[in-house]
Amino acid sequence: MTTPEELLERAADVATRAYVPYSSFRVGAAAVDSDGNVHTGANVENAAYPATICAEANAVTTAAALGVRKIDAIAVVHLDGDLGDLCTPCGNCRQILKEFGVETVIMRNPDGSPHTVTLEQLLPMAFGPEAFDAER
Ligand SMILES: [Zn+2]
Fold first, then answer.
1. What's the CA dihedral at 114, 13, 41, 80 to 10 degrees?
2. How far apart are CA 106 and CA 62, in angstroms?
3. Region 53-72: what's the mean pLDDT?
4. DSSP letter string over 26-80?
5. Which of 5-9, 80-84, 96-100 has the lowest mean pLDDT?
6. Which of 3, 21, 46, 86 has the most Cβ atoms closer than 10 angstroms to its Cβ?
7. What is the b/e burial string over 83-103, where b = at least 16 CB atoms within 10 angstroms of the residue's CB?
8. How far is the CA of 129 from the centre of ligand 1 (A)?
9. Could you tell me the CA-to-CA distances from 113 to 4, 86, 124 in Å, in that order?
10. Rounded to the nearest whole angstrom, what is the distance from the C-alpha of residue 105 to the centroid of ligand 1?
11. Angle, CA 72 vertex, CA 18 and CA 116 arms, to 5°
12. Distances (CA, A) of 81 to 25, 26, 29, 46
């Protein structure tokens, strides 16, 4: 079982490889799937800003491309900017996390300890796959 601290470490490691020539704001994410495998992603910026990919989206879509359909938890870490702030997933990423059943979101406190919340806390009354009763 991957601990929150280990997931934060994996997220911080992949954040060092973020492609951020415009913001210099490096973010990494590490998602653990229902089989216990960890999938990582970093943010990848684009000169056409809306084409930028967030770290969380990168990690989750990389897992999805491997056939993963359920992710239990994801850790998100940023390396730059005001380290007094938690790096919370953006609204678009919260919806992506909802699609793959993420239950737990782990951020890093300024002292390095995990700050754990539920996706329900970040995205209450979310619209999700259950609306379609779709097979995943
Ligand atoms: Zn995002």
1. 70
2. 19
3. 98
4. -EEEEEEETTS-EEEEE-B--SSGGG-B-HHHHHHHHHHHTT---EEEEEEEE-S
5. 80-84
6. 86
7. eeeebebeeebbebbbbbbbe
8. 19
9. 9, 11, 25
10. 13
11. 75
12. 7, 9, 17, 19
Whether 25 and 43 have beta carbons less than 8 Å apart is answered as: yes
Centre of ligand 1 to C-alpha 32, Å, is 18
Could you identify the residue written with the tokens 């300890």? 113
Of residues 56, 99, 103, 135, which has the active-site annotation?
56
Residue positions counted in the chain: 136
Kindly list the domain boundaries of the chain, sorted by start residue.
4-127
β-bridge mates for residue 115, sequence order = 107
pLDDT of residue 133: 79
* 56 annotated active-site: yes
Tokens of 38: 């960890």
Is the model's pTM score more than 0.90? yes
What is the fold of 4-127? Cytidine Deaminase; domain 2 (3.40.140)
How far apart CA 25 and CA 5 sit, in angstroms, is 22
